[in-house]
């Protein structure tokens, strides 16, 4: 099981809701757009976790990943 850190970031717009990145220590950080409501932030975190558990971080085509996610 992996450890996750969540960090709020003031992105320039709400176009990007969140992103996940691996860290050198084996953990992952989910960067969440601080401009979103709390409900939208929670949904964004769940969306990024779906990518993690769906092994999407190993895939190269981001457009394909997003088109196939819920």
What do you see in this structure?
The chain is built from 2 helices and 3 strands; from the N terminus they run E-E-E-H-H. With 70 residues, the chain is of the alpha+beta class. It has one domain (4-67). Strands 1-3-2 form a 3-stranded mixed β-sheet, covered by helices on one side. The radius of gyration is 12 Å and the shape is globular. It starts with a strand and ends with a helix. The model has no long low-confidence stretch (mean pLDDT 86).
User: How far apart, in Å, are the first and last alpha carbons?
Assistant: 23 Å
Q: Rg, please?
A: 12 Å
Q: Please trace the helix and strand order, writing H or E for each element.
A: EEEHH
Low-confidence stretches: none
Number of helices: 2
Q: Which structural class do the helices and strands define?
A: alpha+beta
**What best-fitting shape do the alpha-carbon axes yield?**
globular
Q: What is the typical, i.e. mean, pLDDT?
A: 86
Strand order of the largest sheet: 1-3-2
Q: Helix share of residues?
A: 25-40%
Biggest β-sheet: count, sense, barrel?
3 strands, mixed
Q: List how many beta strands DSSP finds.
A: 3
- Domain module count: 1
**Amount of beta strand:** 15-25%
Please give a handful of descriptors for the protein shown.
2 helices, globular, 70 residues, 24% strand, 31% helix, alpha+beta, 3 strands, three-stranded mixed beta sheet
């Amino acid at each position: 099981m992996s450890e996750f850190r969540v960090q709020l970031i003031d992105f320039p717009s709400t176009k990007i809701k969140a992103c996940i990145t691996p860290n050198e220590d084996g953990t992952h950080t989910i960067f969440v757009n601080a401009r979103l409501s709390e409900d939208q932030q929670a949904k964004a975190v769940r969306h990024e976790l779906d990518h993690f558990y769906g092994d999407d971080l190993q895939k190269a085509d981001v457009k394909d990943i997003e088109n196939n996610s819920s």
